[in-house]
Amino acid sequence: MVTIDQITKAYGNTSVIADLRLTIEPQKVTVMVGTTGSGKSTLLRILAGLERPTSGEIRWDSDLRSIGRPNLGIVFQEPRLMPWLNVRQNVEFRVRPVGHRQSSELAARFWNRWA
Asked: Which carries the bigger pLDDT value, residue 112 or residue 65?
């Protein structure tokens, strides 16, 4: 279970999320619906650890804490390539475990699968 307790997120003087309280139950599907700029993506970014709330807290169920940081991810609506990497490096970036294989070994293993 995830408990969102009075989360607020502001950018300067503009509050995107104000005092949000929400409980996300395990084994349930939770849907957020709102207009553009209502804070849906901001909340997801906070939950994924990509941003910090201005105030408030998020409490994760103890079962999730016992295995470390919850395994969360985010898929952006638009393509998000890293402009400083070429196409191959962008693809390899996601499949390379941090601190593991050399790029050449990874490239051979990955690209040979599609050859």
From this structure: 112
